[in-house]
């Protein structure tokens, strides 16, 4: 277990005092114990990395893999979830197989394709803001805008009905479990989600559409350079979870960060050209980003001036690394014009987030629409009263009460 200079022992994750503020322990760990032993919710021990260069090295190093089902890998959650068990094993975790999967799926998430989607995303945001305004203030920005928008977009890309979004949300939460659900609930949700996606893919084979899953089916099976049936199901499930849960939470957190200090919102109103860099800074500054990324080390490796033995599970805390003063000038301040901004929120290297262009496009579109439509937007509660999402590997706010 890691210990700070006062002798305090850390369990992990380490919560901040409020939903928008980083834990004070992050800075101490970066300075005094950048390669730390921590105990996970499962009870297993892992190595926590909080310094920018160490996190970047591990995420970019192909020797650190997602093979968290290895016998000596640390389990993240006692009951299971996306990092434990066989949820992701149908998609190759590394090597040429993983790169082939990324090439097949990545065609749908290019920056060029996302730029072409932006007018439609802004139109969706306009409609959701209309509905929120009609219902009147105060409103929950996460429920009215943050959650439905990314769901509509990813459902459109995958060709699945957005009307099923409440089921997707429950299934996603169980897969993203840290401490909220038990094994039976997770197994039931996984079985339901798999059955749903299998039936959806069968329907797509009979009636293809202009969507990502139809294109993946048309590419053929593994023998044709395409994906196996199991990999198709895992891809559909994985994209549905990743495509809405993280961005839905980030829309709420970004808006809350910008409204927590009114001068930030006023600066954007005065200069909307800052939207792009403001989105990047919100991604960097997010102190409530969730668990981080666990990686399994199959061979002995030097990290942070020490040697990690084979069999180590390293947890990369990108949010802590994004506050590293050795890399970011005034890292503890939110600078809406910060450039360059090499944050690690989307990871780095061969496993960097496939949907980052989509996430950026959605966040920029939402912020543009909110600034234009609701210039008087403000939080309806003090920032310190915002409540964090608990028990999942993703960070977020339970709700974002606003008025205008």
Automatic annotation (TrEMBL):
Keywords: Heme, Iron, Metal-binding, Monooxygenase, Oxidoreductase. Signal peptide: none annotated. Its cofactor is heme. Pfam families: p450. One of its GO terms (molecular function) is heme binding. InterPro entries: Cyt_P450, Cyt_P450_B, Cyt_P450_CS, Cyt_P450_sf. PANTHER family: CYTOCHROME P450 BJ-1, P450, PUTATIVE (EUROFUNG)-RELATED. Belongs to the cytochrome P450 family. This is Cytochrome P450.
């Amino acid at each position: 277990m890691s210990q700070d200079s006062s002798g305090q022992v850390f369990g992990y994750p380490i919560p901040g005092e409020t939903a928008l503020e980083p834990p004070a322990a992050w800075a101490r760990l970066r300075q005094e114990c950048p390669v730390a032993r921590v105990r996970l919710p499962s009870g297993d021990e892992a190595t926590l990395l909080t310094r920018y260069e160490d996190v970047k090295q591990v995420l970019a190093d192909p020797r650190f893999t997602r093979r968290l089902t290895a016998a000596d890998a640390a389990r993240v959650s006692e009951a299971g979830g996306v990092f434990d068990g066989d949820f992701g094993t149908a998609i190759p975790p590394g090597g040429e197989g993983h790169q082939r999967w990324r090439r097949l799926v990545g065609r749908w998430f290019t920056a060029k394709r996302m730029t072409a989607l932006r007018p439609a995303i802004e139109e969706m945001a306009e409609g959701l803001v209309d509905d929120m305004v009609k219902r009147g203030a105060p409103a929950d920005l996460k429920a009215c805008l943050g959650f439905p928008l990314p769901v509509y977009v990813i459902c459109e890309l995958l060709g699945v009905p957005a009307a099923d979004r409440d089921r997707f949300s429950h299934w996603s939460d169980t897969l993203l479990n840290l401490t909220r659900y038990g094994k039976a609930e997770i197994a039931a949700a996984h079985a339901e989600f798999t059955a749903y996606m299998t039936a959806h893919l069968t329907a797509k084979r009979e009636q293809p559409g202009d969507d990502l899953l139809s294109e993946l089916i048309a590419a053929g099976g593994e023998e044709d350079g395409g994906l196996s049936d199991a990999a198709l199901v895992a891809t559909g499930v994985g994209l549905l979870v990743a495509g809405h849960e993280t961005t839905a939470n980030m829309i709420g957190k970004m808006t809350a960060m910008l409204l927590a200090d009114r001068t930030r919102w006023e600066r954007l109103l005065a200069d909307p050209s800052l939207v792009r860099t403001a989105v990047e800074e919100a991604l960097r500054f997010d102190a409530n980003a969730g668990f981080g990324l666990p990686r399994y080390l199959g061979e002995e490796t030097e990290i942070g001036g020490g040697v990690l033995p084979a069999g180590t599970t390293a947890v990369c805390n990108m949010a802590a690394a994004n506050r590293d003063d050795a890399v970011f000038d005034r890292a503890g301040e939110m600078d809406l014009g910060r450039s360059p901004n090499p944050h690690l929120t989307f990871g780095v290297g061969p496993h960097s987030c496939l949907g980052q262009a989509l996430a950026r496009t959605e966040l920029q579109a939402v912020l543009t629409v909110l600034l234009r439509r609701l210039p008087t937007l403000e939080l309806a509660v003090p920032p310190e009263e915002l409540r964090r999402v608990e028990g999942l590997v993703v960070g977020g706010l339970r709700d974002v009460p606003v008025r205008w």
